[in-house]
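Researcher: Structure prediction, please.
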Amino acid sequence: MILPIANGKTMAAPLSALLRAVILAACVAGAIAGAPSEEWAERLRLLETRVEQSEQREAEQLRRFETGVEQSKQREAALNKRVAFLEGEVQRLRPATAPKVRTDKAAVGSMGEPEAVGRRLDHEQPSPPPPSPPLASPPPTCCRWTADDTCGTVVPPERFEVCTHMHEYLETKTTTHEFADLDTCLGPDASKWSAKFDGASSDVTLSYDAAVMTTLKTPLKVSHAADCSNVPPTLNVQMDTVLAHTLTLAEPGHVAIDVAARLRELGPYQDPNAWTLSSGQAWFLANAFWGMPTIQRNADAMDYYATAHTNRPVSYMMGLRPPDHNMGHTHYCLTPTQGQCDWADSFVFWVKNHGYDLMSIRTNCPPAYEGNGYSSGAIFHGSDVEAGAGTTAPPDDTLFSLYPADNDFYIMELSADRTQVTFHSNRADTGPNGAPFRTCTVPAGVQFYGQLMQYAPGQNNALPWIKYA
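Model: Predicted structure follows.
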């Protein structure tokens, strides 16, 4: 059996001594009655065995009880900690209903730290507020508490309180933290996670038990100059930043600038560092006499070689017909696969470099993008003819009716919304300044790299001009 003791715990009664006394009394009674001693000895052994088994059961029950008590204490401590946290959140997110006196000076706590100036969500004032400069009329939806009653004193009390709570709640939830794998980042036991903010260093430390797992900067820091009455503060963005939407610079007195759109407009560039040349197949020609970087193909047999590609996606590519004329053909490609040009998924300007030849000027738009049912997306724009034109491929045209000349240009350009690609050339009979002569559909979410394909041994091509996507 289990007996209570002074400190609230329990203990097993000395059953062995008690039962042995009972056995002894039974033996004496048996002897007086004349029972055989062997029979009583066997009974004694059986009773002792049962006593030992009973003691073991009592000890196991006591161990389980003490374990349950300890687990209950741990659960209670965890629950109390959670309750305290939630009470703190409630106090932080919901203002006190008791009136607080507003002062002009920040209050100071018992440890010398500044405390928040008191505020109240009714419009009563314990004393007239200090004079302040005239304020501009509040916006129509102004309904929250401010230290100087910016929103006025005529907002209905219920709206005033709800409006204030909503604004302050949103302001405390400005930053959302998302962990790819919280257990890997901090550790598997959530009870050991902790976060500590250090305002002096603008750091937040995330720890697991006593071990620091990572220290990160707060996303934003506002720096105030010593002469803060004359020098405006500076906002510091302290983390690597990805902008999901438009970033606009609106400096007073200047036209607002969409930064991403403006960067896309820069160029075009003819930059050798923007390209990778295929090792052993092409190189930059030394002493190119026409004054621009020039790629020369190796002397291997005639075939299309992927001799150069851009290192990053582009939105614009312009090929220029160089003064060096030969029998080489060139493919200028916008391809989704870096390092190759497959006409099934690439936009292509196909140009023949030969002297004064109108035959080979072609463009390609992948039929899969157009959804037109053709098996080929090529259009012949010169004097040669596509065998399947009008049946398995779009109809040919004769837009390039003039003989080619040095420095003719061939452009492919993605629209700003990335839904179309247009083809331009000064030789296409479509109007002045190389107006677009073909427009094709671009699939959503696809990026394109610039690719140069050269055909003839020793062929030279000017390095294409590009704009980054």
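Model: The longest helix spans residues 37-93.
Researcher: Thanks, that helps.
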